[in-house]
Amino acid sequence: MITCVRTKLGELLLESWVLLVEQGWPYAVGLVAGVLVVALIARASKKMDAPGDEATKPASNKPAKQSSAKPVERRAPAADPVQKTPAPVDPEPELAPDAPVSTTAPAATEAPVQAVVQSKPSVSLSERLKSGLSRTRGAFAGLGSVLQGEFTEELEEELEEILLTSDLGMQATTEVMDRLRARVKSEGLKGDGIRDGLKAVLLDIIAPCEAAFEPGEGTNVVMMVGINGAGKTTTLGKLAAQHKSQGRSVTLAAGDTFRAAAVEQLKAWAERADVPVIAQDTGADSASVIFDAFASARAKSQDILLADTAGRLQNKDHLMDELSKVVRVLKKQDESAPHEVLLVLDAGTGQNAISQAELFTQAVGVTGIVLTKLDGTAKGGVAFAIALKFGIPIRYIGVGEGIDDLQPFAAQAFVDALFEPASA
Ligand SMILES: Nc1nc2c(ncn2[C@@H]2O[C@H](COP(=O)(O)OP(=O)(O)OP(=O)(O)O)[C@@H](O)[C@H]2O)c(=O)[nH]1
Ligand SMILES: [Mg+2]
């Protein structure tokens, strides 16, 4: 626009020069006055355009710029739907400085837990156990179509395959088949009778493992051991809540000093279960943390000290030695400590659980087993293999990530769940 006005002025000045020559000065003066007026208008319009001189910017740009500025957004957070996106972001930076280093850890662990807890009212624990065993159940429930008539060689083969695919392992499968064969022979079982016979054989094997831990006098130390990610800390949190609800005083010991954020994870569980936790920094000596925690818990006459430990592979000798050291130092305070060593087994790890049970028992004398993640795709068969080989009590079953998702092991319910029809 400015360029256009300037061109016009040039033309007018030229015309006034021509008039001065051809018509005399009065005409020329009149024209020059007109030119001056046009020049003033042009100057004024140039000032208005000045902020960027981008002639393409419409006048409406200014209000638009203001509406996208932050102060405007903060003033009316609810009115503008676009501002709902930044709204949830705001609390995070506010929270972050409050908590030390690992604020994100408890937040991350809390989210899924809450989700599971919220979904609970509609699904009972036994329902979740049944659905947790759905793979195994699928295989066992299919027995109906297999078990018809006589106990033939073909049927034996099919049964063997079902047991193997349900994670019983070769040794336990052979034992189960031998016992079943003997029953079929002595009782003349056929069809559905063979199914009931199998159920009875499995129950015979697993029933002796149904034994609850009964805390004794004084402070009972319960130590959680197992491989990485088996569910030790989660189970510990659930246990804290259970003991507390049964009227016991509980303290937690943050013995996993290896994994960054492990302490924060435990603190989050302590908060949820509303129990105190004794912790030191990551990298501290696990044995000394648990030793100190035991001394403190005894001084405060606590009923239960739940000690977390770092996950470790059972075949890493130096890591297993560290665990043995925890037991050794605890015994310096109380020869009967630890009163319970809970091996936490992810039910989905299959036959590797046998090796875990063997090597953890050698290192720290496992006194009880927790089978976790039975609400997932785990097959329950490994429980029978462990029962046959070690006879260690199975104390609990983990059927979810929520604080209440820990069931005392009940052999009959466990076996029944394996045989539940898929539609149940
Ligand atoms: N679905 C389901 N998830 C579980 C169960 N128990 C634990 N988990 C989940 O398994 C994951 C690992 O659990 P943790 O308790 O941290 O395992 P950990 O043995 O303490 O792991 P490390 O300390 O790393 O050795 C988490 O996401 C838990 O929520 C369970 O019974 N069911
Ligand atoms: Mg842990």
Architecture overview:
- By secondary structure, the protein is an alpha/beta fold.
- The protein is 57% helix and 8% strand.
- It has 20 helices and 8 strands.
- The chain has an 8-stranded mixed beta sheet with strand order 3-2-4-1-5-6-7-8, sandwiched between helices.
- Strand 7 and strand 8 form a beta hairpin.
- The termini are far apart.
- Bound molecules: guanosine-5'-triphosphate and magnesium ion.
- Magnesium ion (MG) binds next to helix 14.
- Guanosine-5'-triphosphate binds next to helix 14.
In order across it, which strands form the biggest sheet? 3-2-4-1-5-6-7-8
| Net shape | elongated
Q: Name the helicity range.
A: 55-70%
Rg on CA atoms, Å: 39 Å
